[in-house]
Amino acid sequence: MMLFIFVSCKNNKQGDLKSAFIIDGKLSNASGKQVLLQKLTINDLISIDSAVLKNDGAFSFNVKTNEAGIYLLKKDENSYITIIADKGEHIMFECDYDKFNKAYSVKGSQGSEQICKLNDHLQKNLLVLDSLGRVWNVAKNDANRLQIKADIDSCYFRTVREQREFQLDFINKNSSSFAAMIALYIGLDRTQIINQEKDFNLFEKVRKDILAKYPANSQAIELDKRIKQMKMLRVEKNIIDERNSKK
Questions:
Q1: Which of 70, 119, 164, 246 could pair covalently with 40 via S-S, beta carbons 3.0-4.6 A apart?
Q2: What proportion of the chain, given as a percentage, has pLDDT over 90?
């Protein structure tokens, strides 16, 4: 486990935390590189700030806010880390720049720590799928390739099931957190884990629990609208299917 080593001006930062959150970060092997902070909404991605890393890889963001929100810390378009932040939080983040979202540490934000655990588990299973792909590339011309393919498929589906069980448990245990909302939409490679049709009751649970916790939060209100729209579409589809079945 990497250690957090930060020197802060406590008086100034404690004052800032009344109406803001702070992210103090340190990335190894990253001198002169840039990181970008963006806010994620239901329908948009808004750039908030950017920083060029110091010689020791340190950076800091001080973000004014009046509510909890979801943010992306990015080194490029394909590499980002999800941060859940609220006013009053002092979030400390550390990782290796080259590994970035594959392995990182975060403190100071319960939601961000939950997302980190979710990411750690996801990365573990992505490594399994990557290994299966390498095995098949070596074995696809093997005389016994049909059996090898069957074994690979069996391991693949077992890994997907395990990831699904983990995400279902994670969402149910953290259903009032924005981390649960993120977990609803996270997939494993190109496989969607939580299904809007099959698992709609779970979407409903997260909607209700987050809205109950954050009744005036813009992110919670947008989530409420989106899932209610999903529900209406489901009802309309069921009516159409029922009519068609009677023809």
A1: 70
A2: 72
